[in-house]
Each structure stands twice: as structure tokens, then as C-alpha cells.
Amino acid sequence: MGHPSIKKVAEFLIQNFDINSGPIRCLDAFADSYCLLKDTGRSEDVVEFCERNFNDIRRTVVDHYELCVANNYPVDFEIIGTGNDYIRGMAWSHDGMAADERLIRSRRSKIGANIERIDALDANGFEALMVAFLVSMGASSYKITPASKDDGVDFVGKIDLTVNQDDGATYSLIDNFSTYVVGQAKHYKKTNFKISDVRELIGSVGMVRNGISAYSPTRSDRFGIRPYDPIFAVLVTSGNVSKFGWDFASRSGVLVIDGRQLAAHLTESGYFDD
Fold first, then answer.
1. Rg (Cα) of the chain, in Å, rounded?
2. Which of 37, 54, 121, 151 could form a disulfide with 125 if both were Cys (CB 3.0 to 4.6 A apart)?
3. Domain match, 72 and 138 both
């Protein structure tokens, strides 16, 4: 049986570790990840591989954890123990923890559960979820485009900008001045979005702004966006985003929202409340 690479074992654990898991030995976690990755049972050969490469696998996992912490990015697990020899889920808690820490971990647990709910959606269900996202962003109106001939745009939301006066009334600002959220919804689950998605969205926003459609020979104003209306380009994915992906999107002027951020946002907005 050919062994997977150390990197693949570590990455599988990082992407699939149960956020609610109680403390277990790192060696057992590595062996479990190996078995799930290779769809095999635990054997002496598996354990021997994990023992032999224990330090390298652990170093890869710890490096990922420390990078997430340094960049204030959420992670599903934490390494504990004097020798970094145990691992547990970031949502696991016990009665001995302070109340505020248990509250934080309870919130993480809800977000983790809602990530799974989002992952279970099909492509159409994920695009429909964008309605909740746009409403939570304050959109007064929105449009989800058809699955085909959408010119690379999955959703458009209109957010009206208003100003409150001293008398308490709300007035439209500069003749119904609005900003628009134009985006794509990519249901990639745990995989990274593609750089080509960012490029496509940038081109699609340009077409929308100029009323250009690949399927109409004349100018199209189907979204009602005027040439001077500001547009936010947003790429929402149910998957992950690599560091290079974040950097590229940021330099390109595209706001990227990954699966965890989407789940956290919709959890806080009460969308998943029963």
C-alpha cells in the first residue's frame, strides 16, 4: 500500500477536524486522518507511518495553526499539552472553563454546524442563500440571475444610502443614491476558489456597469445600475481561500467571503435560528 504524503495527511486533518472534538492524542488524530484519507482501517503499517513521521506532521499542523492565530483567522482545532501532543476542537468546552469562554465556544459550535448545513446545499440552494446574505447586508432589493446566460453574475443587491436629519426623519441622499453588490456564488465546499473566478467577476462587473451583455446586441440595463453608481464586487464561496487567493482578490478590488465567514455572518444575523 502506498502511503500518502505527510502534507496530505496534515491537510486532511486541518480541513476535517471536528470543531467539537474533545482532547485526543495527536498520534491518534494523525492515524484517523490517514485512514479516512486512504479509506482504510487502522493497521500496524498506518500507526508505524504516523509514528515515524509524527514530528513532521505535527509541525505542519502547528505551523498552520500559528499562521491562523497570527492573522486572526478562525481555525477548528487547537494544539495543547506541554509537548504539543494533544489536539482538541476549538468549540469543545467543559464546566471548568470560564463562562465567557464557554459562550465563545458555543458560538463556534453553532457556526461549525451551520457550515455543514451550507455544505449540504446544492448549487441552486447556495445561490438562493445569497438572498439571505443580501438582505442581511441591508439590500432594499435584489436579483438572483438564471443559472445560464447570466454574464458571470449570480446576484445583484441594491443598498440605498440615506441620511438621518435632526428631526428624526430619514431622507434619500442625492436623489436615491445607491450602491450595488454584484457577485458570484461558488459552492466549492472545502476546496479553494479559483483565481479565474476573480478575473471573471472583475470582467462581469465591468460589463454590468456599461450595460453590456453577451446575449444582447443593444445596451442592457436589466439591473438598473447607473454609470455613476458605486459597485462592490463580492465573491462568496462555501469553500476555503488560500493566502494567495486573499492577496490576489484584495489587490483586484474584490471582496471575498469564504464558507466560515458566510456561516458566521448568517449565524449572527439569526438566519439559522429555528
1. 23
2. 121
3. no
